[in-house]
Amino acid sequence: MSSHADPRPPQIGGRQSLLIFACFAAAYFFSYGLRSVNAALAPFITEDLSLSKSQLGWLSSAFFISLAAMQAPLGVWLDKYGARRVEAGLLAVAALGSLVMVWAGNFATTSAGRILIGAGVAASLMAPFSYFRRCYAVEKQAQLGLWLLVAGTGGAVFFTSPAAVLASHFGWRSVHLLSGISLAVVAVLLWRVVPDHDVRVLGPAQREDEASLWLLLRHPEILRVLPLSAIGQGGIIALQTLWAGPWMTDVAGMSPARSASLLLVMMVAMMLGYMVMGFASPALQRRFGLLKIALAGYVSCFAVVLLLAAAPATLGWLLWLVMAVAVAPIMVMQPYLSAQFPRAAAGRLVTLYNMFVFVGAFFIQWGIGVVVDRLSEAGMGRPGAYAIAFATLGVLQLASLAWFARRPAAR
Question: Which domain holds residue 262?
């Protein structure tokens, strides 16, 4: 597969582009916030539902497994029906999931709500990435994606310390009530504002070409990046969206309020990292290429994971901030990979990649909870249990990087 036969992207005016971007950004704001919110709400949910660490890990990772399960059909839907219809419909499911969380009184019902939210926000990054791939020039796609991630981390900022404050006054369910109402409003805006340029740019034959999904699965470039996306990026997401908070309370001895405040700072640092990359990415892309930028981010984050396992807890908060900034370059891996394939496969490609990431996030997030619980039950202290879990993850991430480096790139 190659991208040289792509159809010409449509001409979209500045004002219309701004409206399109604003709708996608609003959807991703809530998606990323709900992905991250358990890190801040963990103390409240754990106390209310009497959860173990492994149950807490499952509750958060259920979001990722449902999101991952949606990726294969989602890619086909995006290529066939377009971003507007698919994302607006799925956001309605996410709104329903948030309302289920409001009335959930036990672990099983809360899990069901998280699963619905994960499925409902499954298109919140993939739909705009697919849309940008088809409707904008290649040199604009990474920059648009990075600015979308700025909006997402804005959601993560709101869903950390402010969400914890809201939960402390009105209960953790109040956060999900506001989220459910907001998601329904964004779904309506997407349906009414975003045009179907991504569908119109392709011919009917291209939209019906579903068999290429299986060709993508066997493509050398996909096989090359699979472990790096699942273990590398998935592991970083697992840490940032759940285990950063419990690490701060269990290992560093912080109070829930202090932990939530530091998570807020971490999300602000991540947002600033995305902003800097958003401005700098065109020049960096011309000088180094997207792949080298992404690999620099991976190496930096993997080093932080290993240092978190070995460094004193008093320095750990600095390492979390370094990881928050270093994650920005990693996000250009997806635009790099997308540019290696034709626009007709954009939906299937970005969702396939995302599936690897979130399957990895699910197993790693849940697995860390299981490891910490089992080692603690065996008599090891919490700091030691977290250190072994993080060190194991860091070694696996380095192995995924070695796999990527040793396999030849597709020609």
Answer: 14-406
